[in-house]
Amino acid sequence: MAREDGWGFGASLVVAFVLLVVAVSALLTMRGSVQSRVMERSLDLQEVGQLVRAFSDKVSLSNSALLAGGQSLVRDTEQARRRFLETADRLSTRLDAPEDQALVAEVRAAEQVHDAALHALLYAPTPREQKLAREQLARAHGRVRDAQAQLERKVQVRLAQENHAALLADRWETGLLLLASLLGLGLASALAWVLHRRLNPLRREAAASAHRFQALVEGVRDYALVLLDARGRVASWNPGAERIKGWSEAEVLGRPHSVFYASEEAATGVPERELARALRDGRLRTEGWRQRKDGSRFWAEVSITALRDEDGKPQGFSVVTRDITEQRRNERVQELLAEAGRVFHQSLDPDLTAAEVARLLVPEVADGCILYLLTPAGELRPRAVTHVQPEREASLWEALRRFPPRAGMPPAVWEVMRTGRSRMDVQVEPRDVEASAETDEHLLLIERVAIGSSMVVPLRAGSETLGAFVLLTARGHRRFAQADQVLVEELAGRAALALVNARLLREAREAVDLIAVTAHDLGNPLHALQLLLSKVQRAREAGRDEDVRQGLVAARGQAQRLGQLLHNLLDLSRLSSGKRVLDAAPVDLGELAREVVERFAEAAAQAGCDLKLEVEPGQVGQWDRIRLDRVVTNLLSNALKFGRGHPVTVSVSALDVEHTRLRVRDEGVGIAPEAQRRVFERFERERTRKAEAEAGYGLGLYIARQLVEAHGGVIHLESVPGRGATFTVDLPRIPRPVEEAPRAEASSLQQ
Asked: Per the database record, which ranges form the PAC domain (predicted)?
């Protein structure tokens, strides 16, 4: 019975299908004829519209060309006029009625009159003729518009007639369609009953499979699973994507996937290029920075797969994203530590060692880095400044140069130096930036850097703090985490140890040099002193009193030179051990300079130098008298040595309300430009043909610089070879607080 029912159902289905095909064929034939006529009239109306637009384009272009001088009128309007004429030719061919063709001919004639009026206006020599040409052009323009309007109304009337005929045909079609629909409804009901019985189990299985897949997708928390449509807009969003990227599904659906990229990458078209590569290759695996809803960034591993239908047509993309920031951070930590180890082992310059580590931190850990090193005078000075953006690096340098960090100011670097503990601000608030600025100009320089997050890490070796790293991230880029602080503290500790080791190695080498310097510089005056004393003894035995007197004077000079060398070596020993302590008290620098000049009067006469002193009264400050005496003595001794036979001038004057200036000038051989950068370094010699035999090692200038900087001052040199040299010392009258020297040390210096 089931088989017979099946054959009967099949035969009925075939008969119904044949009847349906016949009815539909009749309907399609009738409707096709009517629709064809309606389509022809619609195309006629469309061509009329194109004719109107072509003429409007010509008018606009001609007006623009006339405003520009009219030289390019023909070239600018040529294409629009050719389109107008081609459209008019097509209308003449399509329109069968004579009256329609006459209207087209009238439009063409009016356009020719308009074109002639344009050329007449272009070549009109006088204002009167130009006015007549404009009036003729306006009349021609109106005539063209009227003719186009008549033609358009005519075509619209014919289209309305065809639409009315199509409406009548639709009524007949509706009856036939209703009959076919009733038959199809019966067949569809029977077919639906059969399909329901056969396909319902399949439907339940498909629903269960979709539910299991949805549960699997929503259960994935460590991966962001995103579906994009063919235009790259979000079509599906799983909970893992919400956890990693911060957007909810309602917030992100329909948005372009470029919102997940860093702003600079989105601006350069990186998202579109990656989708194009995935579409071309089928799949793309890549890594890079991605952006969360709150603006923070994470390093992502991304897999993009192009989705296509059975015909190969693109349907969209599936994007699987995994946050591998910590994994990459761990890898970079190992790489940075290895690179830092290489730097520590290869570099022997202490400052360069720490500066190289500062450059390693950018851009891997931070966008910007400032390395401060503590000077023996207790000042924090920037040793290295680097930033991923050169213009922001320049702003940092400018801010540090004009507004250095000072104790008691809001910047956290002094707090870190005092406590020895790191400080991290995950998000720098605008009020914190305003509090750290000394002036409005300082605030402007800081705001140019756009600090979003900051971290200050000390360079500690044992209980000693040598300096600090200041790390910065750009606003809206990334924020520091605890892992960043641990990494930088590890690098800072290694850098501090390397800094101490490098300094110890340098001091050990300099100690060897010091022995050689001592043997050389002490041997010469001792040998000269022995020769002079022998000469004095022979002169005394021979009764030559004048020779005895001269010999004693020369011996006294050698003894003074020997004493000065001993003082310099003593100061050098203390400087090498880091004991640059001061015993500050009120000192009149003018009176001190006068004492030194009087002490060198005899030496100046022997050198043939006219020694002058220029003092401005009242130059009193809180200084260490013994150390300043050493500075003036070394500078004046150097001037007499290289200015032999020329005038030497010592001057003391006020630089401003808070500073005093000391100058020692000679008019001797001068110092070559390439040597001026090294004269303040330890053991440097400036050799000249005239004074090579007396030059000696440059301990005096090195010690003078160290002692001046211990007072918070600066010393610099100006010299032209053959025209002498000028050493200038600028001292603050109230130096920054320094440690008092022990009494025993002060007494030993006085002795």
From this structure: 284-336
